[in-house]
Predict the 3D structure of the following.
Amino acid sequence: MAKVKTTFFCQNCGSQYAKWQGQCTSCKEWNTIAEEVIQKPEKSDWKTPTSTTKRVSKPLLINDIDTSQEARLDMRDGEFNRVLGGGMVQGSLTLLGGEPGIGKSTLLLQIALRLQYKTLYISGEESQKQIKMRAERINPNSNNCYILTETKTQNIFKQIEALDPDIVVVDSIQTLHSDYIESSAGSISQIKECTTELIKFAKETSTPVLLIGHITKDGHIAGPKILEHMVDTVLQFEGDRNHVFRILRANKNRFGSTNELGIYEMQGSGLREVSNPSEILISEKDGELSGNAVAATLEGLRPLMIEIQALVSTAVYGTPQRSATGFNAKRLNMLLAVLEKRAGFRLGAKDVFLNITGGITVDDPAIDLAVVASILSSNEDVALPSDYCFAAEVGLSGEIRPVQRVEQRILEAEKLGFSTIFVSKYNKIALKNTGIKIQLISKIEDLVGFFGLIFVTMILK
C-alpha cells in the first residue's frame, strides 16, 4: 500500500511548507501552519471508480476550433447576466463570495428556481425542508430545480450522473469533502481537491457549476488563494446588512469584463433587480437642505448619481473630529486641507462628518467636487439647488482635474432631470445641443466664487 502523503499549509493564506514553522513567511501570521493529509492512494477521477471511459484530448489548430455552438446560458436575471458578460458559459466554474447573511444563497436559489434548464442545487449547510421554506418565499413554483443535501463528492457525482443536470449549484465549497483526502471539510487540501474534481466534471461534460464560498474576516475568499486562480469567474456580493442594497461585482472573469456591476434590493420575497439605481440612491426630501450635493460617479461601466451629505459644525472638544462613511477618510482630510489652503476656509477648528447615502462605498475620484460642494454648503448653512450635480477630481494645488467617460456621466444626469453639471475645463466634451448646462471650471476658487453668487441669492430669497 502506498504511503500517505502529508504536508503543511498556512490556514490563513494557503502557503505550503515542507515542515512546520511558527510564522508564515507569506502573510506574516503566527501559529497558522498545520499538517494536513494531501492524498490517499488509489485516487480516481470524478466519475465512479468502476467507470473506465475517458475522453482523450487531441491538439487542434486554433482557427479550426468551432465556437458556434458555445452559446451562453440565459440565467433569467438581467443583473447577473450583465456581470457575467452576457450569461453563463458552458463548462465554466463560477465562485460567489460574500459576508454571512448578505444573500449569497438567496441569490443563487432564486436564479435556480427561475431557470428553464434542469438545475441541481446541492446544499451542505441546510436541509431540504429548510431550502423548501425559503423557496416558497422566493418562487413557490418551479419544475426544473432539484435539491440535494450531501457533502461527500463521490455521492454527489453519482447523483449527477443519474440526474444529468444542465447547471449545478454548490452551497458551499467549504462543506464538501472527498474520500481521497483525510483532512476535515473546509481545510485547504479538501477545498483544493473538491474544486479540482468539480473542474474536471465541468470541463468534461460542459456543465456550468456555481460555487458559494465563505470569506475571511478581511473580506477575502476563504481557503487558499489558488482557489480563485482555479475557477473561471470570481464574483463578490457586497453590501451593508443594515441597508437594502446589494452590489454584485466580478473580481475575475475569463469570459467577460470585470468592470460591470449588478445592483439588487433585498426584499421579503428575495432580491429584486435594480435597473435604475440612481433614482433610489438619491433620497427623497420635502425641501432643499444644506450640506447635500449630488455626484455623477461610475460603478464599473454603469453611471450612477449618488447623494453626498456633509455636516460641518464647531468642535466642542479640543480636537476636531473627521468622520466619513462610504468615503476614504484620508482623502476627506486632503480635500479639507485644499479648501483651507487654496480657498481660505478655516475648517481646522470644526468637526466634519461625511456620508454617502444608500450604504454604498465609492472610491471614484470624480466625486471629489461633490464632496467639496457639500462641505461648503454645510459650512455656510445654505442649500445648493437640487438640480445641480458634480463630476470632477480635485488636485492638491486646487485644480479641477478631468475624469474618464465624462460624457456618459453628463447623459445620465440629463436623463434624470438635472439642469447643471460642474465638470473640469480640461475635459474634452464632444456633446452638442444637450438639455443640461455644462459648467466648466478649472480651479477650486472658481467653484467658491460661483457658489458665492448662489449663496447670496439664496440668502436674499
In short: The CA atoms of residues 162 and 380 lie 71 Å apart. Residues 188-205 form the longest helix (18 residues). The chain is about 25% helix and 25% strand. The first strand starts at residue 5 and ends at 10.
